[in-house]
Amino acid sequence: MNSDEIFTTEYLVVIDQKTSKALYNLVDSSSMLNKMLQNESPIKIQNNQVIFNKDKFKYHVIHGVVPEKTQRYFYVTIKAKTTELVSYSKALKEMRTVFKNQGFIVETLQDDISFFYSKRAYSMIHEIESLMRKFITFFMITKVGKDWVSNNLPKNVKDSIAKAKNRNYASELQKIDFKDLGPILFDDYQNDSNARLHKEIESYKDNENVPIKQLKALMPKSNWTRFFNKHVNIEGPSLKKKWERLYELRNVVAHTSSLNSTQFEEIHELVEELKPELEKAFANLEEVKLNNSDRLAISEKIATTLDVKVGDYFNEIALLQEEIKAIDPSQKELPLTELVKSLIDSNRIEKSTGLKVQKLIQLKDSVSFEGIPSNENIVELANRINDVQKQIQKTWSKEVFLAIEELGGYSTLEDVYKQVESQTQRHLFGSWKTSVRRAIYSNSSDVELFNGKYDIYKQVSKGVWMIRKNIAPKMLDEFLGSKNAES
């Protein structure tokens, strides 16, 4: 650690008169901000320095007013040397506490302490992650066999590997997301089905001695429990808990959240506890013996871990594609990108909806090509699916509104179904009535499914609905996707 290294922290502190009138009037200058900090905490401010626990830190504050807003801001900068880090962290905490308690709005613009701890934590996490990947890769290749990739990975992964002539199959293991490394070793699973276990139990009579060891062999167990427990000093569930906590802290580091000294120390302790156990297990791999049943079960476990979420998301995308094609059945044979463009041109869907559909399909293709997709892409895939689902539902909202309006603005749900059937140009399949109900329920404050945005419908009685009176024209334009709402 360089003793001459300078740490800088910058806060943008804001007061809004609308929410904190007294504070806005009281703290109207840098000197008043300094006075409040000194009155409400143990810190002292003198000669452009913050004094705390006899340590002195460089301090500067700029006061300004937001133009045409009843808001004022303070741009606060505090600097310290490495040797003052502990006291510096405590002084910053005192300042943040004052800001929070007094009702200031605080944005952290620069946080060198967090960056410092994040850099050190990242190297430790990277070390333990690399060790875990090495351990799993060596285990899979030497104990399960190199053919586990071609025989047991999902089809899209195998296709991706086949396309890359010089690609090493073992490199696919390097793409497994950090959080999925833990489940491969620590999650319980069965070699045999529950039916086999039930059949085994039922085969014994009440007065027979039941061979517990034989039954236990059929119970769900993790790979760690099956093969490594006897070689190490820590149980699988304890290791799993530590790995999951390390994953949570890894996300704090990876997503540039504020990493404090306490979290850093926790990361250090977790790595120090996990590392020797993994090294010990690695050293004892030669003693691990697997039968064919073990090999198959482990391979399937990894394939399921990697592919189950993506497979579910792809199924949802396929359903969305069918919904989009159903909007105009006469063009359903068109490639999806051309169909979307046609639907935009004919005002059947909004341009923003079409663009979101196209981006979702592009992302799906990208994830398919990846083989083992990154966690970031899986999360983005889920978010985009949710976004497109909402956009497709908007097309139903407009159609249902027009149906009820055609019925005089007052109708039973059954009559709404009939009206939609008679007026729609889209192909109606299985779940279309659910879409109709959702279009009403999500836009009525009379039911729990209300989305909180457009309060369009009033529930007159069970199964009877009406369009509310005196809906603001602007809100109605937005709800129907009118061009007036965009201008």
Description of the molecule:
The protein has 19 helices and 9 strands. By secondary structure, the protein is of the alpha+beta class. The protein has 3 domains: 98 residues, Alpha-Beta Plaits (2-Layer Sandwich), CATH 3.30.70; 139 residues, no CATH class; 181 residues, no CATH class. It has a 6-stranded antiparallel sheet with strand order 2-3-4-5-1-6. A 3-stranded antiparallel sheet has the order 7-9-8. A hairpin with a 2-residue loop joins strand 2 and strand 3. It is flat and about 80 Å long. The C terminus is likely disordered.
Helix and strand topology:
Layout: E1 6-16, H1 21-26, H2 30-39, E2 44-46, E3 49-52, E4 55-65, E5 71-81, H3 85-102, E6 105-111, H4 112-144, H5 148-152, H6 155-163, H7 178-186, H8 194-202, H9 212-216, H10 223-227, H11 236-254, H12 261-283, H13 292-327, H14 336-345, H15 351-370, H16 375-406, E7 410-412, H17 413-423, H18 432-441, E8 457-461, E9 464-467, H19 473-480
Antiparallel strand pairs: 1-5, 1-6, 2-3, 3-4, 4-5, 7-9, 8-9
Helix pairs in contact: 4-7, 4-11, 4-12, 7-11, 11-12, 13-14, 13-16, 14-15, 15-16, 16-17, 16-18
